[in-house]
Fold:
Amino acid sequence: MQNITEIEELIKLISKLPGLGPRSAKRIVLKLINNREELIRPMAKTLADVYKNIFRCKLCGSLKSNSNGCNNCENIKHKFNKICVVENIADQWSIEASSVYQGYFHILGGTISTSNNQNKEDLLINSLVERVKKDEIEEVILATSATVEGQTTAFYIQDSLRDSNVKISKLAQGLPVGGEIESLDDGTLISAFKNRQSFKNK
Structure:
């Protein structure tokens, strides 16, 4: 392989994307190079626009444009009384695509890790408590994954909301142990939402 610094750096960057390794990254880079005008030029502009204009909302964790308010928690047309708490934006997109849930979302941006003591403030849990009070939320649906970290996070959120007069539920049947929300099919998500149960700390 030719020793071209720019190509090697691009391969390294692309191979960091989910599901891609060095071999797949090389194929993608060759495709880009062979289609410079159709792919590289518009992609470079779009990536620059995303970098400049797209951010996570500091209140709810969803994505928003720098030129607009947050469609999830600020400029939404409907008034909801439910918040679905998920770990990441991919989980939000999966649930939205299933059309099983109508309400606000709260994207934590991760989980409380039992191994590296991730900073709880980074997970926007305090802002969740504020939203519950401010928006008069009646139910918080915990849609964290069925992993140790996901369940640890769910219990911490439940404890953080103990002084709020709000119903706390969790996804139930259909959510396999160790399963992640974004990998579930629509039927499994529908079952998990419809059969959600009140969340109680043991």
In short: Helices lie at 5-14, 22-34, 36-53, 89-98, 125-134, 148-160, 186-194.
